[in-house]
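ARCHIVE CARD
CATEGORY: sequence design from structure
SOURCE FIELD: tokenized fold
FIELD CONTENT:
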């Protein structure tokens, strides 16, 4: 129980949600033609949804790394261990790619 609470707090902080609480930016911004902007250019500003998306992606990567670790516990069940390892690697890899893509949107758009 305590680990779960601490884990949620760490995800909250790593996702940049303290900024969202202090500055209270809008959840989604609108562009000049009315299209929604989910990621704002610049490292000094963040929309509300960016923090939530970052928290979810960090959670997904953490679950993937946890599955990689958990797969090492099933040495005598290689099929199950392999499935856990592949799923963990996919989750961690996708989380890395999503975070890299989001950072690229913030820096280069």
């Amino acid at each position: 129980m305590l680990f779960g609470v601490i884990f949620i707090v760490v995800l909250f902080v790593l996702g940049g949600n303290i900024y969202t609480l202090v500055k209270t930016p809008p959840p989604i911004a609108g562009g000049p033609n009315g299209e929604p902007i989910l990621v704002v250019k610049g490292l000094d500003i963040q929309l509300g949804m960016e923090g939530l998306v970052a928290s979810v992606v960090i959670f997904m990567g953490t679950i993937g790394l946890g599955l990689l670790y958990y797969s090492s516990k099933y040495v005598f069940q290689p099929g199950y261990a392999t499935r856990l390892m592949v799923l963990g690697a996919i989750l961690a890899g996708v989380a890395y790619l999503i975070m890299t893509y989001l950072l690229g949107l913030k820096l280069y758009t």
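CARD ANNOTATION: Helices lie at 2-14, 17-23, 48-71, 78-108. The CA atoms of residues 44 and 94 lie 25 Å apart.
SHELF: design records, drawer C
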